[in-house]
Amino acid sequence: xxxxxxxxxxxxxxxxxxxxxxxxxxxxxxxxxxxxxxxxxxxxxxxxxxxxxxxxxxxxxxxxxxxxxxxxxxxxxxxxxxxxxxxxxxxxxxxxxxxxxxxxxxxxxxxxxxxxxxxxxxxxxxxxxxxxxxxxxxxxxxxxxxxxxxxxxxxxxxxxxxxxxxxxxxxxxxxxxxxxxxxxxxxxxxxxxxxxxxxxxxxxxxxxxxxxxxxxxxxxxxxxxxxxxxxxxxxxxxxxxxxxxxxxxxxxxxxxxxxxxxxxxxxxxxxxxxxxxxxxxxxxxxxxxxxxxxxxxxxxxxxxxxxxxxxxxxxxxxxxxxxxxxxxx
Length: 329
Ligand SMILES: *[C@@H]1O[C@H](CO)[C@@H](O)[C@H](O)[C@H]1NC(C)=O
Known about the structure:
Blueprint: H1 2-24, H2 28-41, E1 45-48, H3 50-57, E2 64-70, H4 79-97, E3 105-111, H5 116-122, E4 129-133, E5 148-149, H6 152-155, H7 159-170, H8 182-211, H9 213-228, H10 231-237, E6 243-245, E7 248-250, H11 261-284, H12 291-319
Parallel strand pairs: 1-3, 2-3
Antiparallel strand pairs: 2-4, 4-5, 6-7
Bound molecules: 2-acetamido-2-deoxy-beta-D-glucopyranose.
């Protein structure tokens, strides 16, 4: 009797344990079925909470999964989250509609209000954060244990940039089918038609401006000054305009591999003064009738040219004390 009772207890606890294990660890089949259902019902996006997150991220996975941890609550006011959300959903939707192998890639979204536990567990304190989990089993399994983290600053916020990042990892094309923006097309058409009409109306007036050598010389000069003064660098690297430190403002960044926004403007103005002096010497001074005034003009513009040029060298030396050239100062 005792033995049978013992055996019964043993067996029932074994069964209980086994069912607990199954409840805690859903099988791959059920995970894939759930993901397929959830994503096809919701335009390709699986909305997660902390439990679902843990469940889908848990191994084994024979699917890839891109999970966006975001915070769309207006109270949190996460502007990049709002900016990226439609782009992420666009990629998910395009992937779904392209009819790819279903369990290849899934898109999940975990909002902070449903996923505080996950945020706390991962020690995340900024949003959006995007993780990419590679499959651990199956034909596409990769031998990486940590998820990849999408770097927004490097890769960008647009659907196209995100999709090309995914394509790179996945080794297959992730498409983006952006619905046409009819309003923008309409406005652009109106603007182009308006511009064409006004060009036609004003052409007789504009012809002399367009044909004038001075117009093109001015445009070229402005473009050249912008380019040689480092405007392109500012455009690409986006440095601060000036730098504040301990209530002191610095206008000039030290070293040649750095600059502030205002620096390129200072340099452009100096180059501009130099080139205007040369133009004045070539074009304006020879037209002066009075010989004395002409001589005075020559000295004046020469003086301006040399002073500005030597100041420019001085500026380069402030920026980098190793700069070898100088003129007067
Ligand atoms: C992943 O597993 C599920 C369930 O076994 C299966 O239906 C699916 O085809 C598998 N996917 C891949 C990419 O192997």
